[in-house]
Design brief:
The protein is of the alpha+beta class. It contains 5 helices and 6 strands.
Amino acid sequence: MEDKDNSVEDLKKDGVNQEEEMKNNINPDSANQTLENEDNNEQIEPDVNLEVEEGTEENEDKKSGKFFKKKEKKKDPKDLKIEELEDRLKRTFAEFDNYRKRTEKEKSQMFEIGARDIIEKVLPVIDNFERGLGTLTEEEKSGGFAQGIEKIYKQLMDTLTESGLKPIEAAGKEFNPDFHNAVMHSEDPELGENIVAEEFQKGYIFKDTVVRHSMVRVVN
């Protein structure tokens, strides 16, 4: 009986020792890792489900045509026709404006050319007025006839001046071949070199264009 009791006690001791060894062999880090892995597995499962669901939605969008970009909407033929007509109208207005400006410029040039031709024909009449008035004595100038002629001459010159005619300054000015025509040369120590000493016939300018050069005598 004693032997049996001793064997039972030995078995109990061996069982206790085995349990202690198992407890000692268990690593707390490994236990934590197993717990973390279990948590991660629990968290990953819903993500996988979401990816699957998203994939199915994309597939459905592709099948239904929603995945592709929207095509550009074609313009209505009426809108295209309206744009074409507007463009043609703008071009027509621009061409008409250019035509108007060109015709106005041509008309102005033609008017100036015609006016210059008339003035060239009137200039000898002006010369005759000036020569006739220049020959009058002081007594004759006070007469009614001479005063009437002078008023007509003044009215004519005022009208031509308003139209753009003006005389060229010559006497005492430096000789300029663009405005003066030297028909005589002389020596005069009192005047400087290349100075207009005398004017034989007046020159005129009409709107910045020389109608007639002044006939002058130049001092060398």
